[in-house]
Amino acid sequence: MPVLVMKFGGTSVANLDRIKRAAKRVGVEVAKGYDVIVIVSAMSGKTNEMVGWVEETSPLFDAREYDAVVSSGEAVTAGLMALTLQEMDVPARSWQGWQVPLQTTSAHSQARIEEIGTDNINQKFGEGMKVAVVAGFQGVSPEGRITTLGRGGSDTTAVAFAAAFDAERCDIYTDVDGIYTTDPRICEKARKLDKISFEEMLELASLGAKVLQTRSVELAMRYKVKLRVLSSFEEQSDEAGTLVCAEEEIMESNAVAGVAYSRDEAKLTLLSVADRPGIAAIIFNSLSEGGVNVDMIVQNISEDGRTDMTFSCPTDQVARAEQALLATKGAGELNYAELVADKDVAKVSVVGIGMRSQSGVAAKMFKVLSDEGINIKVITTSEIKISVLVDRKYMELAVQALHDAFDLDKVA
Amino acid sequence: MPVLVMKFGGTSVANLDRIKRAAKRVGVEVAKGYDVIVIVSAMSGKTNEMVGWVEETSPLFDAREYDAVVSSGEAVTAGLMALTLQEMDVPARSWQGWQVPLQTTSAHSQARIEEIGTDNINQKFGEGMKVAVVAGFQGVSPEGRITTLGRGGSDTTAVAFAAAFDAERCDIYTDVDGIYTTDPRICEKARKLDKISFEEMLELASLGAKVLQTRSVELAMRYKVKLRVLSSFEEQSDEAGTLVCAEEEIMESNAVAGVAYSRDEAKLTLLSVADRPGIAAIIFNSLSEGGVNVDMIVQNISEDGRTDMTFSCPTDQVARAEQALLATKGAGELNYAELVADKDVAKVSVVGIGMRSQSGVAAKMFKVLSDEGINIKVITTSEIKISVLVDRKYMELAVQALHDAFDLDKVA
């Protein structure tokens, strides 16, 4: 029998009615002849509640105990989902991570999947079970302790099962109906994509992170697992949602697939840094050790042996960056005149695999922004993405103008 | 190191503050030099909530899935308790049933303990761990699925661990401060017992059931595990609470240790039943198959080849009893003139191992009730218990009069 993996997030199993609705979707796929592996999250809110208890009990908690506590929510929904399917006369049973077994590293609270044993579940499929309901987000360490995979880990669980069982597809049921060309909340012309490539999905993380965990997309790309994102709150056809798939499966595409943004960026500039070999290494090593996630980096041309160094990071890490650099300066390893922080910037990016073959995307992007009177503060590019830092007040305008200019509201 | 088992029920771990209070008690015992095994229940209310979800989802639920769901509450408190102890610098870790392993039968939702593996926990004690926090109520079946032990199963878990680890004592922390001579709510002279024998504790089930699960007392008796019942809401000395122990350890005792009662009893009489061999078997087989828990049985003297048969059962089973007997009558296997049900009766019992050596307890009991004008409807006796059925309106009076007459407010 072909295998289908279906994953239901927290809002899709938030209560017994929603679990029933999800179970009906599963029943539809079983009726089509699939053996189905269902991956469930905890009821929405449950994991947060337990994380709160752990943090209140022990601010610097033992991650092994954290995992033992917070993994319990998925066990509850897995059992309830199996019972709901049984009530619909669909042969089903629940599996916890250690029962599968889903073996992980010992990196508690952010473990990585090492191997999924397929024998137990395949044996049950052979005996007539139609649905294996698996508690997402959790596994078991080599020491036999429960591990969790980090936030959004149920997506990763789902993709890993799809890879291990050579599933035809991995359907991610969530509270949105697919991946959009940009955020519909700030651009009313945003259009749902029927297909998007893994590479684009990864670059659109700032849109996709709310829908798909980045790690799950990486894993899907590596194992060529077709991922479909769709809503559990609507009746669904086989073509619903957005298919995240290999580039080859997308016939024709716009140069640009989507416009992403990140609101909470800050731009920091170190004025008058000595321009000598190794200075960048000192600066960014200091920031890395200080726990600052540096994104974009620009170095000005040098003048009189000194230069300015600009970088961006999340707004809430500015204080940490200032502290780290001041400490390095204090230790005599680094000299600079001043650190200037601009917390009122945002990042806007255009993403598309079509950029590889179609030139002029960057030029067009800069012209569009210029025509709107939006000043570009920093630019970075990758093979399939161009990102710019702009004043935050222009963020929505930039997204809308770029969405229009690249005709994202129209199918390619 | 000597091992101590400490069990905390749902109200004793109802929130983070109470878990902290319980952990402090554990710390006191660790400081005395014990290796401690802590058995925890789910936070009060959590198990009921999950049972409700299961029953709403699937009225005739698959007990294997029921177990997978309802066992999750204990995992949460075990992890939180371990974290709380770690915060107090007490080396601790949590264990779920399958990790210990605590092996049970496959009788899901009412499994029996088969074996407790001691190697894993003993190894950790050897490595310096001072407290093993074990999720109560749960185990693992030979098929590798999670089982639960039935309501109050955490008491049984605690006693089983005390037996397996040859613990010096098993302390059951609960919301009452011990076992009383009778229910303090209906007899203000009720006195807390310092010691009570296993046998008496079992007979006092109607008092003890609220405090100790009957199975845990049976198990403690078989393996000679000293059980102590005490409150988690008070500062406790080594002599606090009530010790449930072997008869030999109780030096001197009253003939009567306590007065128990059961409010919701009903008395049913089958009038004019043919008095022939096998008729009792037919009647009680019919009731048993109808799911009626018959308690006391009395047969009148025969007259003209016919007799009356009286028995008692819980009030809420009267309809079931009537139905079962009517069906048997309808099938021609039984004949009787009438079935008379009296739902306004209660059972009052005096219990004490001293009865074995001291005569006259029954006579005294009947005289006390007679002096109060209380009519006895049915009598049954065992080696250490005498029970009578009386009109429910006299129940409190009967308990108080017997408590006085047998001097239960005074230490023997």
UniProtKB/TrEMBL annotation, chains A, B:
UniProt xrefs under InterPro entries: AceGlu_kinase-like_sf, ACT-like_dom_sf, ACT_Aspartokinase, ACT_dom, AKii-LysC-BS, Asp/Glu/Uridylate_kinase, Asp_kin_monofn, Asp_kinase
Molecular-function GO terms, alphabetical: kinase activity
N-terminal signal peptide: none
Gene3D superfamilies reported for this sequence: Acetylglutamate kinase-like, VC0802-like
Record field: catalytic activity: L-aspartate + ATP = 4-phospho-L-aspartate + ADP
Keyword match Transferase: yes
EC number: 2.7.2.4
UniProt domain ACT: residue ranges: 268-350
Family listed: Belongs to the aspartokinase family.
Protein name per its UniProtKB record: Aspartokinase
